[in-house]
Amino acid sequence: MYILLFSIIGETLSTVLKLPVPGSIIGMVLLFFALKFRLIRLRQIYDAGQFMIENMTILFLPAGVGIMSHWDAISKYWWQIIVIVLLAIVVNIAVIGFVTQFVKHRFEGDYRK
Questions:
Q1: Which of 10, 18, 28, 56 qualifies as a cystine partner to 23, CB 3.0-4.6 A?
Q2: Does residue 7 lie in a domain region?
Q3: Is residue 9 part of a domain?
Q4: How far apart are the first and last CA of the chain?
Q5: Contacts of 8 (CB under 8 A, 6+ apart)
Q6: At 4, which helix (H) or strand (E)?
Q7: Does the pTM of the predicted model rise above 0.70?
Q8: What is the tally of structural domains in the chain?
Q9: Residue 24 domain boundaries
Q10: Does some domain include residue 42?
């Protein structure tokens, strides 16, 4: 119920305030802060979260169907989409690498011999 509540709040905020951010993202951020500041406990959403993780392929199915139903609109831009996806992958790997190195050096020290 908490996950649904935060999703509805996020969608409402996104719609009412006409934000360029999807309501589901706003809801996830609000849920994160509620967990971070201990307004709700992890055990209260653990079972539902586990269920969603185990069934993630079903949850992403509507996005795949949406892409296929609008294929005629995006098919002429396929190479731009591939370039953007590949660049995003490279940027993500680089950022994750730098953050991991920063955390390792900052909090664990440097163990080079």
A1: 10
A2: yes
A3: yes
A4: 52
A5: 27
A6: helix 2-16
A7: no
A8: 1
A9: 1-54
A10: yes
How far apart, in Å, are the Cα atoms of 45 and each of 27, 33, 50, 53, 113? 14, 14, 9, 12, 44
More confident residue, 109 or 96: 96
Residue 2's Cα: distance from chain center in Å?
18
Which residue from 33, 32, 16, 14 is spatially nearest to 24, judged by alpha carbons?
14
Q: What type of residue sits at position 16?
A: V
Structure tokens at 94: 């680089």
User: Can you read off the two tokens belonging to residue 80?
Assistant: 């731009």
> What's the CA gap between 14 and 10, in Å, rounded?
6
Q: Measured between alpha carbons, how far is 31 from 26 in angstroms, rounded to an integer?
A: 9
Classify residue 28: in a domain, yes or no: yes
> Over the stretch 51-99, which tens digit does the pLDDT of each residue have?
988 888 877 777 778 888 888 888 899 899 899 999 999 999 999 999 9
